[in-house]
């Protein structure tokens, strides 16, 4: 069981920073996201089969909130190169430990419930990975068109178990525009949750077939991790493998799923008041509607406002319309340019 936990979470700026990334923040519950994710993983596997993939700078903060997790549970990536290289690296390591190893890859920023239904979906995916030699994604039924997710177009049936269905994937579509997303929902496509299940050796086979930009650097791992991460380009598993491979399947999520990807997601993971305001921390709203307020330190007061995201974190306060809150990367780029001028 692998937990991908190396990201920064820039869409939760200014609360999330490189020194305190979103995995350490209580965004889906009252506990840090990484704690929720590890507890979920522990319901499926013992600690000796759990690995957290992250940079060295995150190991100490993670240990502080997961004090009973052994040091062997951390696989330290020398530098961030995206999900494709880090999963290729993990598959290479696992295949040498056990040629029959099945990998389950989780992200550290998801809201998943109930746990038993999650277990059922993952167990069916693992069984199909062993039997069919497929790259499996867990697919969630959309409840809205959303341009932030990739979509899975289901093909032929792979059977199922109980309430969990499985299909071959006819096509793997990366993040679409709004009109295309609406069409995908109408056509019965699934969201790609980014929860992947496959045999380590099958992933390596598909990398050799479809991702030469990664495969040509894998022999460097015989010399150590650093040479591989120095040479391999930045790329994501969705585009490098899943869009190219003919061996892709999906298992339907029998559980409620949400990607806690940005401030707007708090409207789905936290309870709103009668006027649609979501408030976390010391905040007071008067004659205000449909705002998201997060006060990490100090207090925030809103009066007569509508449709804003307001975040107070240390010495920075962010105020942005809700419909622009998902585009914080452009804002951060402009702030970086100002600091460099």
Structural account:
- 31% of the residues lie in helices and 29% in strands.
- It is of the alpha/beta class and 341 residues long.
- The protein folds into two domains: 2-259, Spore Coat Polysaccharide Biosynthesis Protein SpsA, Chain A (Alpha-Beta Complex); 264-340, no CATH class.
- Helix 3 (83-97) crosses helix 6 (200-210).
- The longest helix is centred in the middle third of the chain and has 18 residues, at 115-132.
- It is globular.
The biggest beta sheet is recorded as:
5 strands, mixed, barrel
The CATH class of the largest domain, by name, is: Alpha Beta
- Using only C-alpha atoms, the radius of gyration works out to 21 Å
Individual helix count? 11
Question: How is the secondary structure organized here?
Answer:
Blueprint: E1 2-4, H1 33-42, E2 51-54, H2 56-65, E3 74-76, H3 83-97, E4 102-107, E5 110-113, H4 115-132, E6 135-140, E7 151-161, E8 164-173, H5 178-186, E9 190-199, H6 200-210, H7 212-215, H8 225-231, H9 237-242, E10 248-252, E11 256-259, H10 266-269, E12 278-286, E13 292-303, E14 308-313, E15 316-321, H11 328-340
Parallel strand pairs: 1-2, 1-4, 2-3, 6-10, 12-13, 13-14
Antiparallel strand pairs: 4-9, 5-11, 6-9, 7-8, 7-9, 8-10, 14-15
């Amino acid at each position: 069981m692998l937990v991908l936990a190396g990201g920064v979470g820039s869409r939760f700026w200014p609360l999330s920073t490189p020194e305190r990334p979103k995995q350490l923040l209580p965004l889906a519950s009252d506990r840090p996201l990484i704690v929720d994710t590890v507890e979920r993983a522990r319901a499926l596997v013992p600690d000796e089969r759990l690995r957290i993939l992250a940079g060295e700078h995150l190991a100490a903060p993670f240990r502080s909130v997961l004090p009973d997790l052994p040091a062997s549970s951390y696989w330290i990536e020398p530098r961030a190169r995206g999900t494709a290289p880090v999963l290729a690296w993990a598959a290479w390591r696992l295949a040498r430990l056990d040629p029959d190893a099945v990998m389950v890859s989780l992200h550290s920023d998801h809201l998943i419930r109930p746990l038993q239904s999650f277990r059922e979906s993952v167990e069916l995916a693992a069984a199909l990975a062993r039997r069919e030699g497929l790259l499996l994604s867990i697919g969630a039924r959309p409840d809205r068109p959303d341009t932030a997710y990739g979509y899975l177009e289901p093909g032929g049936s792979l059977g199922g178990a109980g309430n969990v269905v499985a299909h071959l994937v006819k096509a793997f579509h990366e993040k679409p525009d709004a009109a295309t997303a609406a069409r995908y929902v109408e056509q019965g496509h699934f969201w790609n949750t980014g929860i992947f299940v496959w045999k380590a050796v099958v992933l390596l086979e598909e990398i050799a077939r479809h991702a030469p930009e990664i495969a040509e650097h894998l022999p460097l791992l015989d010399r150590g991790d650093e040479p591989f991460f120095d040479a391999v380009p930045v790329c994501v598993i969705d585009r490098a493998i899943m869009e190219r491979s003919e061996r892709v399947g999906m298992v339907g999520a029998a559980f409620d799923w949400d990607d806690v990807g940005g401030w707007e997601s708090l409207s789905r993971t936290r309870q709103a008041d009668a006027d649609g305001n979501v408030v976390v921390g010391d905040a007071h709203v008067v004659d205000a509607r449909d705002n998201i307020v997060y006060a990490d330190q100090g207090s925030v007061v809103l009066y007569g406002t509508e449709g804003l995201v307001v975040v107070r974190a240390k010495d920075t306060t962010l105020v942005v319309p809700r419909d622009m809150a998902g585009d914080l990367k452009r804002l951060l780029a402009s702030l970086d340019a100002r600091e460099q001028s």
